[in-house]
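[agent] plan:
  1. take the single chain provided in the ticket
  2. run structure prediction with default settings
  3. attach structure tokens to the ticket
  4. add a short note for the reviewer (M.T.)
[agent] executing step 1
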Amino acid sequence: MNKKNYEYLTTDEYLQTFISTQALKAALEIGLIDYFIKYEQLKIDQILSTIKIDEFGLITLINILKNNNIIESIDDKYQLTEKFSSVLKYRDLLEAKIEFSNLVAPDIMNSFSLFLNKPNEFMIQSRLFELFGYQNCFEISKKNIDLAKRWMKFTTVYTRYEASVCMHHHDFSGYQTLMDIGGNSGEFALQLCTNHRNLQATVVDLPVVCEVGKEYIKQKPQSKQISFFKADALSDSLPNNLDAVTFKSILHDWPEEATARFIERARDCLKPGGSIIIFERGYIDNNDYSIPYGMLPIFLFIRHFRNPSFYQQQLQQAGFKDISIQRIDLDMPFYLIAAKK
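[agent] step 2 finished; step 3 output follows
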């Protein structure tokens, strides 16, 4: 695999602990990182003359950043490390992970025992699951659109980088028509269409999500390749006679019966010989539970991630053939599962 497809994972190195993450957040917020980008090397007095922070606070911040290998000192000057400078090409992901983790942290801090013992009760009380409320995605209103924009911002950024991994491991070049069920903002379809100019993609999602997605996609050069279809994919009529149907990071959200129904709907929408592609996080099976702070949002869904054999069985029951399973180790195990009608 091309190393460039993995490079975005280096963002996790700088989000290991609560304090190191908050220090980086502060450095971004007060403009310190941008100041280093502009001037490369800076003395303490130069920073103090521009950044609104007292000397003790600045030295404290710099020491934490140095310990996290974000900045380094040469004589009496400071500069960004070469490695962190290269990570800034993924600044959108870095900032999204910080914001998302900070949003989740109070739920973990206040209710971790509940998370372990009574997950359904935890979900009811969690602020995060209020943000991701499906019940708010049917009626188009300013309030619901604003709520959707907030959580779709996170899923869009994550998908932007994970899509490149999926494309590296699966050849999409033979498809002319594709439907992405639960396609969110259309980012996955956007990445596919950017790399395959003959592809026409339909994003299926709930009404509010589609409204936000259409607004997001309309300014992109690939907008003519992407359309949005407002529907409940479990029950409403869907486009058919398609070359491919994709599920990217959606099926883990649903119980077994609903997942089976999604797969059956995909089958019915495909032309003979068409492909279903499932790209999902999988169950953590290596006993590695040293969860860095930046992984908190993913950790909340730890109960929902499945072994690939679950999807394989459901695909077989739906009559799919030529089932292939690829494990791809990213920030956690991913599985790329493909089959033909």
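[agent] step 4 note for reviewer: The longest helix spans residues 142-169.
[agent] ticket updated
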